[in-house]
Amino acid sequence: MQTLDPQQQTEIEAAAFRRLLKHLDDNKDVQNIDLMILADFCRNCLAKWMMAAAKEQGVEMDYDEARERVYGMPYSEWKELHQQPATPEQLAAFEAREAERKARGEA
Q1: 35: how many CB neighbours lie within 10 A of its CB?
Q2: Rounded to an integer, what distance in angstroms lies between the CA atom of residue 34 and that of residue 85?
Q3: Three-class SS string for 50-71?
Q4: CB-based contacts of 44: which residues, under 8 Å, 6+ apart?
Q5: Low-confidence stretches of the chain (pLDDT beneath 50)
Q6: What pLDDT sits at residue 106?
Q7: Which CATH number fits domain 8-103: 3.30.230.10, 1.10.3340.10, 3.40.1350.10, 1.10.260.40?
Q8: Which of 37, 39, 48 lies closest to 70 in space, CA to CA?
């Protein structure tokens, strides 16, 4: 594996993150609950991780600002335009996933 200097590492990771955000933006039909069921993270998780990373760098960023950076618009607007109500099947799958996590001691 090629050795990267810290600047290259940061630039590559940042580019990959921007690509992930674009991919999620291009696939708005993929609902956050689906992401949570399948991958145990969603767009809101990314916003929380961004907010935590900003704090580590000494940068103030609140949750609303972080979500706007992830969603590309205010969350309330994205929610109104793109978020569908969770189906009973999605809720059941999410609850089953959460129960599995608790059983493994991860919650």
Answers
A1: 17
A2: 12
A3: HHHHHHHCCCCCCHHHHHHHHH
A4: 32, 67, 70
A5: none
A6: 85
A7: 1.10.3340.10
A8: 48
